[in-house]
Amino acid sequence: PDNAARCGVEAALLAAEGYVGTRDGVAGSRAFLAGYTDDAHPGELLAGWGERPLEIMATSLKPHACCPLQPNGAGRRAQAPQAARL
After folding, report:
1. Which region holds residue 84: left if phi is over 0, alpha if psi is between -120 and 50, else beta?
2. Are residues 23 and 31 in contact, defined by beta-carbon separation less than 8 angstroms?
């Protein structure tokens, strides 16, 4: 939260000085997609919108960095015996 507030204040101060951003923050020449590819196809972002499940529905969050996150423990990584010394 503190960084978001700092960025908001910084943006407001820059705007007060006359700075402006790109009109198209996704597909513009200096926008999000330009940072990833020279051959962006922004129309594909919304292709099939409402006709197929959103990709976000196929993701999940790992509760812990060491959690293998497999359903029913399948594919669980072998854990070192508790007696092992590092």
Report:
1. beta
2. no
**Does the predicted TM-score (pTM) go above 0.70?**
no
- Does residue 33 contact residue 42 with C-beta atoms inside 8 Å? yes
CA angle 4, 8, 12 (to 5 degrees): 170
DSSP annotation of 1 reads -
Residue 16 buriedness (CB in 10 A; 0-12 / 13-18 / 19+):
exposed
Nearest to 24 by CA among 38, 37, 42: 42
Per-residue pLDDT tens over the stretch 65-80: 666 555 555 444 444 4
Gap between the Cα atoms of 34 and 45, Å rounded: 14
The residues, ordered by sequence, that sit 6+ positions from 22 with a Cβ below 8 Å of its Cβ are 28, 29, 30, 31
